[in-house]
What does this fold into?
Amino acid sequence: MRRTAIALLTSCLFAITACSSGGSSTSPSAAPIEADVVVWMDKVCGAVAGTVKAMSDEPSIDMSDPAKLKTGLSEWLGTKVTAVDKSIADLKALENGPHPKSKELVTTAEQGMDQIRTLLADTKSKLDSSTDPTQVVTAFTEMVSKAAALETTAADVQKKLDETGLGEASKKAANCKELETSPTAPPTS
It folds into this structure.
Protein backbone atom coordinates (compact mmCIF):
# COMPACT_ATOMS: atom_id res chain seq x y z
CA MET A 1 0.00 0.00 0.00
CA ARG A 2 2.83 2.45 0.85
CA ARG A 3 4.63 1.87 -2.42
CA THR A 4 1.41 2.43 -4.36
CA ALA A 5 0.79 5.83 -2.75
CA ILE A 6 4.38 6.89 -3.17
CA ALA A 7 4.48 5.71 -6.78
CA LEU A 8 1.24 7.51 -7.65
CA LEU A 9 2.28 10.77 -6.02
CA THR A 10 5.75 10.64 -7.54
CA SER A 11 4.26 9.88 -10.95
CA CYS A 12 2.08 12.95 -10.67
CA LEU A 13 5.04 15.07 -9.59
CA PHE A 14 7.06 14.06 -12.62
CA ALA A 15 4.28 15.13 -14.92
CA ILE A 16 3.73 18.37 -13.04
CA THR A 17 7.36 19.37 -13.48
CA ALA A 18 6.44 19.95 -17.11
CA CYS A 19 9.72 18.34 -18.05
CA SER A 20 9.05 15.73 -20.63
CA SER A 21 10.29 14.59 -23.95
CA GLY A 22 6.95 15.45 -25.51
CA GLY A 23 5.72 18.84 -26.50
CA SER A 24 5.31 20.98 -29.51
CA SER A 25 8.24 22.84 -30.95
CA THR A 26 6.18 25.45 -32.71
CA SER A 27 7.30 28.97 -31.93
CA PRO A 28 6.46 32.38 -33.30
CA SER A 29 9.01 34.17 -35.48
CA ALA A 30 9.58 36.78 -32.75
CA ALA A 31 10.41 34.07 -30.21
CA PRO A 32 12.30 34.87 -27.04
CA ILE A 33 15.99 33.99 -26.92
CA GLU A 34 16.15 30.21 -26.69
CA ALA A 35 18.97 30.18 -24.14
CA ASP A 36 16.90 32.35 -21.77
CA VAL A 37 13.93 30.04 -22.11
CA VAL A 38 16.07 26.96 -21.42
CA VAL A 39 17.55 28.62 -18.31
CA TRP A 40 14.05 29.53 -17.13
CA MET A 41 12.72 26.02 -17.85
CA ASP A 42 15.66 24.63 -15.88
CA LYS A 43 14.54 26.76 -12.93
CA VAL A 44 10.95 25.51 -13.30
CA CYS A 45 12.14 21.91 -13.10
CA GLY A 46 14.50 22.84 -10.28
CA ALA A 47 11.60 24.36 -8.36
CA VAL A 48 9.92 20.97 -8.30
CA ALA A 49 13.05 18.88 -7.80
CA GLY A 50 12.98 19.21 -4.02
CA THR A 51 9.47 17.80 -3.88
CA VAL A 52 10.37 14.96 -6.23
CA LYS A 53 13.38 14.15 -4.05
CA ALA A 54 11.27 14.37 -0.87
CA MET A 55 8.71 12.01 -2.34
CA SER A 56 11.33 9.42 -3.23
CA ASP A 57 11.75 8.10 0.29
CA GLU A 58 9.41 5.90 2.26
CA PRO A 59 8.03 6.63 5.70
CA SER A 60 9.71 5.06 8.68
CA ILE A 61 6.93 2.87 9.99
CA ASP A 62 6.79 0.67 13.04
CA MET A 63 3.75 -1.55 12.46
CA SER A 64 4.16 -3.14 15.90
CA ASP A 65 3.40 0.12 17.70
CA PRO A 66 0.26 2.07 16.67
CA ALA A 67 1.56 5.31 18.20
CA LYS A 68 4.84 5.06 16.28
CA LEU A 69 2.92 4.18 13.11
CA LYS A 70 0.85 7.34 13.43
CA THR A 71 3.84 9.52 14.35
CA GLY A 72 6.02 8.10 11.58
CA LEU A 73 3.43 8.67 8.87
CA SER A 74 2.54 12.13 10.16
CA GLU A 75 6.17 13.26 10.24
CA TRP A 76 6.75 11.80 6.76
CA LEU A 77 3.73 13.65 5.38
CA GLY A 78 4.84 16.84 7.13
CA THR A 79 8.18 16.81 5.31
CA LYS A 80 6.34 16.29 2.01
CA VAL A 81 4.00 19.22 2.65
CA THR A 82 7.00 21.43 3.46
CA ALA A 83 8.74 20.39 0.23
CA VAL A 84 5.62 21.07 -1.83
CA ASP A 85 5.21 24.49 -0.16
CA LYS A 86 8.76 25.39 -1.16
CA SER A 87 8.15 24.21 -4.74
CA ILE A 88 4.99 26.30 -4.98
CA ALA A 89 6.82 29.38 -3.69
CA ASP A 90 9.70 28.81 -6.10
CA LEU A 91 7.28 28.37 -9.01
CA LYS A 92 5.46 31.59 -8.05
CA ALA A 93 8.73 33.47 -8.46
CA LEU A 94 9.06 32.09 -12.01
CA GLU A 95 5.67 33.22 -13.34
CA ASN A 96 7.17 36.07 -15.36
CA GLY A 97 9.63 34.07 -17.44
CA PRO A 98 11.07 34.95 -20.84
CA HIS A 99 8.52 33.00 -22.84
CA PRO A 100 5.15 34.62 -23.65
CA LYS A 101 3.38 31.62 -22.11
CA SER A 102 5.60 31.35 -19.01
CA LYS A 103 2.91 32.44 -16.56
CA GLU A 104 0.34 30.13 -18.15
CA LEU A 105 2.59 27.07 -17.77
CA VAL A 106 3.78 27.94 -14.26
CA THR A 107 0.25 28.67 -13.06
CA THR A 108 -0.89 25.25 -14.28
CA ALA A 109 2.08 23.61 -12.53
CA GLU A 110 1.33 25.56 -9.33
CA GLN A 111 -2.27 24.37 -9.40
CA GLY A 112 -1.12 20.78 -9.77
CA MET A 113 1.36 21.14 -6.92
CA ASP A 114 -1.35 22.74 -4.80
CA GLN A 115 -3.59 19.71 -5.36
CA ILE A 116 -0.78 17.42 -4.22
CA ARG A 117 -0.19 19.65 -1.20
CA THR A 118 -3.87 19.55 -0.29
CA LEU A 119 -3.94 15.76 -0.53
CA LEU A 120 -0.87 15.40 1.67
CA ALA A 121 -1.97 18.02 4.22
CA ASP A 122 -5.49 16.59 4.46
CA THR A 123 -4.09 13.11 5.01
CA LYS A 124 -1.71 14.42 7.67
CA SER A 125 -4.58 16.17 9.41
CA LYS A 126 -6.63 12.97 9.43
CA LEU A 127 -3.68 11.02 10.78
CA ASP A 128 -3.01 13.57 13.49
CA SER A 129 -6.63 13.47 14.65
CA SER A 130 -6.95 9.68 14.47
CA THR A 131 -7.55 7.81 17.69
CA ASP A 132 -6.85 4.25 16.59
CA PRO A 133 -4.73 2.32 14.06
CA THR A 134 -7.73 1.63 11.83
CA GLN A 135 -8.23 5.36 11.27
CA VAL A 136 -4.53 5.72 10.40
CA VAL A 137 -4.75 2.97 7.80
CA THR A 138 -8.03 4.40 6.46
CA ALA A 139 -6.51 7.88 6.04
CA PHE A 140 -3.51 6.47 4.18
CA THR A 141 -5.75 4.28 1.99
CA GLU A 142 -7.91 7.29 1.12
CA MET A 143 -4.77 9.16 0.09
CA VAL A 144 -3.84 6.32 -2.26
CA SER A 145 -7.26 6.34 -3.92
CA LYS A 146 -7.27 10.14 -4.27
CA ALA A 147 -3.72 10.16 -5.64
CA ALA A 148 -4.91 8.22 -8.66
CA ALA A 149 -7.26 11.10 -9.51
CA LEU A 150 -4.25 13.44 -9.73
CA GLU A 151 -3.33 11.81 -13.03
CA THR A 152 -5.87 14.14 -14.66
CA THR A 153 -4.03 17.10 -13.17
CA ALA A 154 -0.75 15.75 -14.52
CA ALA A 155 -2.33 15.39 -17.96
CA ASP A 156 -3.48 19.03 -17.78
CA VAL A 157 0.08 20.17 -17.10
CA GLN A 158 1.42 18.04 -19.96
CA LYS A 159 -1.23 19.50 -22.27
CA LYS A 160 -0.20 23.02 -21.23
CA LEU A 161 3.45 22.17 -21.92
CA ASP A 162 2.47 21.01 -25.40
CA GLU A 163 0.28 24.06 -26.03
CA THR A 164 2.95 26.54 -24.96
CA GLY A 165 5.70 25.04 -27.10
CA LEU A 166 8.07 24.70 -24.16
CA GLY A 167 8.75 20.99 -24.66
CA GLU A 168 11.96 21.61 -26.59
CA ALA A 169 13.33 23.88 -23.88
CA SER A 170 12.60 21.24 -21.25
CA LYS A 171 14.62 18.69 -23.26
CA LYS A 172 17.65 20.99 -23.06
CA ALA A 173 17.34 22.02 -19.40
CA ALA A 174 19.67 20.13 -17.04
CA ASN A 175 17.21 19.94 -14.11
CA CYS A 176 14.52 18.60 -16.44
CA LYS A 177 16.88 15.96 -17.79
CA GLU A 178 17.88 15.03 -14.25
CA LEU A 179 14.23 14.56 -13.28
CA GLU A 180 13.66 12.36 -16.33
CA THR A 181 16.56 10.11 -15.37
CA SER A 182 15.83 10.12 -11.66
CA PRO A 183 15.98 6.62 -10.14
CA THR A 184 12.55 7.28 -8.61
CA ALA A 185 10.99 7.88 -11.99
CA PRO A 186 7.99 5.69 -12.64
CA PRO A 187 8.16 3.20 -15.50
CA THR A 188 7.24 4.69 -18.88
CA SER A 189 4.88 1.91 -19.87
